[in-house]
Amino acid sequence: MIKGSIVELITPTHRDGSPDYEILETLVEWHIDNSSSALIVASAVNQSSAMHIDERTELLRRAIWQSDGRIGVIADLSSESHEQVFEFAAAADEFGANAVLLRNPTSPIQSQDALFDYFRAVIDSAKRPLIIGDDFTHPNLISPPDILTLANMSGVGGFVNYSKQPLQIAHQELPAELALYSGNLASAYQSLCEGYSGIVSIVANIAPALVQKLCSAVETGETARADLLNARLQPLVQALLDEPNVIPIKWALIEMGCIPEGIHPPVLAHTHDYSNLRRAIRAAHIPI
């Protein structure tokens, strides 16, 4: 079971929009230095459906090669194409990913039984623990009670709740080896305090050490320290909620010297400057 801060890793790109694999390797090393627990590679946070499967596969291969077992690597299988899901699952098996993530598909699946069969087929293809994600904001075939059925399915290792609302399931009803993760910026700290195993976080792209320290403080029962760490993170969380896309994250990483600027610096859609985000980063005591 992976615990702690799981980073929805951004994909650095060249000027033409293609992945920059060398900078990816640099980011992997940076997250190792900052003690992140795991990285989600080719994530939907980067609009993975727009990337070619060969690019996603190479991102995964490079990340696993660079990590060399020092940090967990999770392949984000999520795609509108079921064919691409299975192709990427096979790559995760070939390269030795620690786990795979699959968000509940929004494309039509005719019945709940068919959906569960789909998950089983993905597990068979990946041969890695499957982490299932859902936010319950769109009509689908999974309701919170169905998590109990999924939790007892062989090969399911975790569930990411992207919803702001807590799951209506008692932890004692779930298998001990199943990990629950919060994928919602606004409610992540509350979820940790309620016993979740970790956070799936875009904030950790910018503040990896701080998010990991928060997870560790909650796990060890250091309530006062956890409250202080969470207070430091909140301005950054709010700033990213105001701009819910990858652009501000890339801008921040450029300002922090983690990735090169390139010919076209990122531009936020609704603001003419980055003063709010800059203040939030400084409030989190992150050098910029």
TrEMBL record:
One Pfam family recorded for the sequence: DHDPS
Signal peptide region: none
Entry superkingdom: Bacteria
UniProtKB keywords: Lyase
Transmembrane region(s): none
Keyword Lyase appears in the UniProt entry: yes
Family annotation (PANTHER family): 4-HYDROXY-2-OXOGLUTARATE ALDOLASE, MITOCHONDRIAL, DIHYDRODIPICOLINATE SYNTHASE
Name by which UniProt lists this protein: Dihydrodipicolinate synthase family protein
Species name: Zhongshania aquimaris
